[in-house]
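Notes from hallway chat w/ T.B., transcribed later so I don't forget. T.B. wanted the structure written out for a chain they're using in a teaching module, and asked if we could keep both sequence and structure tokens in one place. Agreed to drop them here.
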Amino acid sequence: MFFGRQAMAAGEKNCLPDPGLVWGPWKCLPEKLLIHVPTGMAVVADLHLGYRGGDGDTLDDSLNKVMAPLLRAWRREKPRGLVIAGDLVDQPGKKLFAAIHHWFISNQLEVVGLVPGNRDGSALASGLPLFPDGFGLGPYRVRHAFEPGIPMLLHAHEHPMVHLPAPTPCFLLGDNRIILPAYHDRLAGRNILRRRDRADLDKLNCVALVDGELQMLGAVSGLASVDARKSGLKTQCCPGGNSPGENGIGREGPRNLPGRASYSDAVSSGSCPGSHQKRKRQ
């Protein structure tokens, strides 16, 4: 399976480097969107617009602020359309849906399908085209949550993340299953190495968003094997990839990641910063 930075076209000498990473037919974006290259469709999930913290204060200062990364990715990548894989909102409401619908129209962003999530209610008030049975992208079926029996599935709802050593959202990519990170920055994630069903994820590849850049960390099974050797530590860190030398990642974890100590450095120093508090949402 090919993985790497997408090459710039000839003559684009003065263009900025492409921030996306290509894995087979998919292109991961640092804004936590995924593009299906053959169809040109973008996919995003778990936006949880209207999300409120436990103290009752509105965490979304405005739609413009929360949706700025999505809009930036849309204008840079110029996809044909956007598929939302569930949980567009945190709690359904006519006024919120109306504001979101207006935002999409005013920014000329075409939503071709909303696969309702567990927090979207009927989502009829959204004014968006609904696909309650899933949206097809090539051989893949886009659903909100995992559903057994689908040969090639792209879904969300899991909010996958790893500790590097801070909580870091990640894509999980496999030939038959892909899991999207949560779009909303203030949602708590689930550590993929501490899940009871981790065996189901072992063959998936982890692409983490580290300091705004995408890093391939390798197969989840490789991350877990290193994590198990460090299980005596009271604090938990997540190591890097499973194949030495590939993308600058070896058995001791990612090397030279900007702004972060390596996994081995954290172990040798006996310190690994804990995760900051985020409220869990599913």
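Follow-up for T.B.: Residues 7-14, 54-59, 231-277 have pLDDT under 50 and may be disordered. Might be a good example for the class.
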